[in-house]
Design goal:
The chain is mainly α and 92 residues long. It is built from 4 helices and no strands. It has a domain of 43 residues. Helix content is 79%, strand content 0%. The N and C termini lie far apart (52 Å). The model has no long low-confidence stretch (mean pLDDT 77).
Length: 92
Amino acid sequence: MIAETTYQKKVKLESYSQLLTNVIASKKAITRKWGKEDPPSQDQWIGIVEEIYTMKKLTHRLRLQQTQLEEKWEIWTLFKTKTATKTTDKAN
């Protein structure tokens, strides 16, 4: 079996961190809609992840760790960029 490189471990850790954030956001979206007939929408979930991202961004700026934030949230920012582009294309 081939030993994992440091990069592979880092990617797994960041993927796990992002997965954990997504699970937390999902749980929060469900609790906000608890007892109501309609389930949480994707837009509501995205809004909650954005709230988490904003708080993480503030924390990283205060700790002077902006580069780490950009690395950890790279997948999310790419997702947001693609979704914003799709929304703009639909509007036109």
